[in-house]
Design a protein that fits this description.
The complex is a heterodimer of chains A (198) and B (227). With 198 residues, chain A is mainly alpha-helical. Helix content of chain A is 69%, strand content 0%. Chain A contains nine helices and no strands. The radius of gyration of chain A is 18 Å and the shape is globular. Chain B contains five helices and eight strands, in the order H-H-H-H-H-E-E-E-E-E-E-E-E. The chains are: A mainly alpha (198), B alpha+beta (227). Chains A and B meet through helix 1, helix 2, helix 3, helix 4 and helix 6 of A and helix 1, helix 3, helix 4, strand 2 and strand 3 of B.
Chain lengths: 198, 227
Amino acid sequence: MPDPDHVLVDEAVVQQLGQHDEQALAVLYDRYADLIFTLALRIVGDRQLAEEVVQDTFLRCWDGIETYHASRGRVAAWLIGIARNRAIDLLRSRSHQARLREHAALPGDDEPQAPSVADAAEALDLRHTVVAALHQLPRAQRQVVELAYYGGLTQGEIAHYLGEPLGTIKTRTRTALERLRTALRPYFDLVAEDEDAR
Amino acid sequence: MNNIHQQIQHALPAYVFGDVDAETRTQIEQHVAQCATCRTVAHEYAEVTRLLPYGLTPARPAPYLRARVLHEARRRPQTRHIARWLRQWRAGRHRVTVAWAPAVVLLLVLVGWALRPAATEVAQLAGSPIAPRAVAHLVVPRAGMRAQLSVAGLPPLPPDQNYQLWFVQPDQTRVSGGVFQVTATGTASVTIPLPADYGTYQRVGVTVEPAGGSPTPTGPNVLMGNL
C-alpha cells in the first residue's frame, strides 16, 4: 500500500528495471504484489487466476518496460492498469452470462467492507477514505462504478444488465465519479501547470 | 463551457474505464492535450480509478509466487532471443547450419542487450535548511521533452502560494519549469516541461513563490540538486 517514500524511488527502480536488473523487479514485487493481487482477486474472484494476473503483470513490466511513461503517472498507476487489463481479459474469456453471474456473487456488490485491524497503519487512512467515499455514494452509483471498474463492463452492457436506459447509466457514472473526485482529491497526484496553461 | 468541452467531459468516464473505441480515444487525447480544463478532469477521473483498489480488503498471494515470478523473469530474455532466432531460421532467412546456432544465439543476446530501450536519467534533489525533510527525484527521459518530478516531505502551502521549479544555467540564469502544490501528506508527482536547451542546464531547484509563479525566483529555496 502507498508509502510517501515510494513516490521518490519508484521511478528510479523502474529505471533499473529498464536495465533488466532482477533486484529492481524484486523490489517492485515486494511493494506492489499485494495490491495487484487484491485487485486481481476482486476482479476474477479466484486466487489461482489472481496469482496468474500478478505473474503476468510483473513479467509484462519486465518485458515491456518501454511502455512506462513517467509523464503519464505513477508507477503504481502503470502496474494497476496492466493488472486490471489482464484480469478483465481473463474475465472476458468466459461467457458473458457466466461473467455477470460470477460478478454478481462477488463481495464488492454489497456494502464495502470496513478495514480490518490487521491492515498496516499507513494504509488505513487511505483505505478508510476510499471506503468512506464509496459509502457516501447511493448504491446505484456505487454499482455502476464497480461494474465498470471491477466487472470490465461497458456502459452499454451495464445498461442492459440493469435494464435501464444507456443515458441514465452514463449520467449516473459521471455523477459518481464527480463525487469520488471530490472525496479523494487530497490523495491525487498533482499535475504541474504548463507555461501555456497559466 | 462550450459544446466540445461538454462532449469530451461526458465521454471521460467511459475513457478512464477503457470503454471507448480507438477513434474516440484519439479525439479525447488530442483534446485534453490542448485543453487544461478537460485535462484536469481526465487526470482526476484517472486518479479516482487508481485509488479504488486501495479501498479493497487487502489480500496476499501465496509466498511461492515471488520466487516463481523472478525465476520466469530470469529465463525470459534468453528465451525471447532464442524464439526470435528460431522464427527467422524457420522462415529461411538464415542460411546457417545448426552447428552455428549457439554462436548466433549469443550474438542475438548481445545485440539485444546493446539495443535495450533507452533509459532515463534521475536527478536527486535534497531539502534546504528550511525544508530539511524534503527530498525529490527528477526523472528525465533521454528522448522527449517532459520530465517527471516526484516530491515528498514538503509542507503544504496556503492557496496564495505555489512551489516553483527552476532550471539553473552555469551563469545562474534560471528558467521556470512550472508550479505545483503538494498533497496533504507533502507529496507530489508532477510532469515538468523541459526547456528546449535542457542540456545547457547544470542544476535544478524549487522555491516558494506567489500563486501562479514568478518570472524569476523571489522566495526561499526548499530543494536543490545537480543535473
